[in-house]
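Structure ticket #2291
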Amino acid sequence: MEFTALQIAEYLHGTVEGNATTKVSTFAKIEEGMEGALSFYYDPKFEPYVYQTNSSVVLVPNSFQPAQPVKATLVRVEDPRLAVARLMALVESMKPKRMGIDPTAIVAKTAKVGKDVYIGPYVIIEDNVIIGDKTQIHAHSTVSAGASVGNDCIFYPNVTIYHDCVIGNRCILHAGAVIGADGFGFQPSDGKNEKIPQIGIVVIEDDVEIGANSCIDRAVMGATTIHQDVKIDNLVQIGHNSEIGAHTILCGQVGIAGSSTLGEWCIMTGQVGVAGHLTIPDHTIAAAQAGITGSIRKPGQTIMGYPAYDAKACSRSYIALKSLPDMAVQLRQLQKEMESLKLKVES
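Resolution: structure written out below.
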């Protein structure tokens, strides 16, 4: 990769301030800048580094007004964080992609493999699987019988797709992700837990990314559905027959119990737990470790705590909770004083 400041500005619809012919060939954090690197600035606490950095080009917001001389060439853009992400995506897209089927891979004769596909070492593609064009499936992954995978997907090592599941286009599944394992369904009967057959599937729509070692269970009947552009972090569990709305974000260690429905553009931050058979409306934000035990009726709320409720009210409760030990001491003192007064009155 090598771009001039002018080429970067034109690609990002920004403007150059400084030497437009300055070239960069790598990325660096602004505090670790080096010659030939591109950095970005978006948070005022990092402003001193704009003047100190050794990076050759720095992306800055249009509103930025330098308080000191800047030796780097500046490229002004609307949103530096989004701009650097798009530049990184451009660079990644320019890297050559592997193609072909490794000799150690096992691909069933009935499987249909698209054009320019990469199937890595020890991958297993079972009967009647469909693999779309330009999809990359890395070492030791398994796509089981009857499953379908769209175009331009990336499966990192040790991904497992169970039978008949459906993966859309441009999906990224990180190492160890498991799609379509049995839902956790058991019925106590005659002194034992009798397994309920899980005969449904998982449907993952386009542009979904699933983190390492995350699991999405197949439905009892029908489908567990992950709608388009959902982003799922590492170590997330999604139970059978759940439905995750488009553009929703699930952060690390989130757990969604079976048959729950999340709306669009929700954010479940770290270790949020959602009980089964609940409905969570669009634009709900759940703070870390929130325990959602009942359906949420009003869209657009921020909730926290266990059981989760309005974040502002919950914060006030936590403030009061910190005072409880002192309040308990005061209460005991008041009780003693009341008993003493009572004795005096009775005497």
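Closing remark: The longest helix spans residues 324-346.
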